[in-house]
Amino acid sequence: MLAYLTLEVLECSVDHINWIGKKYFTLNPPSFERNMDTITYRKEGSVMPRTEAFESYSKEYEAWFETHYELYEAEIKTIQKLLLPFEKGVEIGIGSGRFALPLGIRTGIEPSKKMANIAQAKGLQVIEGIAEKLPFEDERYDFVLMVTTICFVDDALQSLKEIYRILKPGGFVIIGFVEKHSELGKLYEKNRMKSRFYKEATFYSAKEVIGLLEESGFKEINSCQTLFGKTLEEVKTDIKEGHDEGAFIAIRGIKQ
Prior knowledge:
alpha/beta, Rossmann fold, 30% helix, globular
């Protein structure tokens, strides 16, 4: 979410990472070394570049939320506007648990070990994995949360199809992200390549996210928005229905 981007930290799934273990899976066996009890990986040119930011700047990540609590609170409240009653939820890209905890989620998927450690210290269950291949059986949850993560997955459509698969009929997903056509979204896109953290991000418009949700099978799409303004210094934290003005957008889809 916007909080992550301004800190230059991202919720992400990792480029062609295989999570190897007794309960996990492989995506690209030729590029990885396998071990049944540990995760090993090899990527030409670099090692897990998208999680390196988490490993190096986890303390700064946490500090941002304390410094910019008003923006963080607005994002939480925007998601809460779309929240339906649920019994069992999971967050994809749980990070340090900043969104899972206030929204009543106790379990999440997270590729960064340091971020997972922070979330676990808060009492959350964190499972290593990626959005494109979730390590859960079909129809396990009635709520899935994914905040900003969609901007950093390798395959957004496959990720949403996986979310659809693990949701029970009648369950719902809420996707939180920075709208690329908003004033702040344009600013981030313009400076994207200057950042070591979100230069690999793919920003989406609300229209694109809605299209992906519909293609994945979701119905009854609804949205809310917040953070209005050209810069963080002048941003307003009103919350409105729709997705045509704010920088932070939350969109809900239901599995029928």
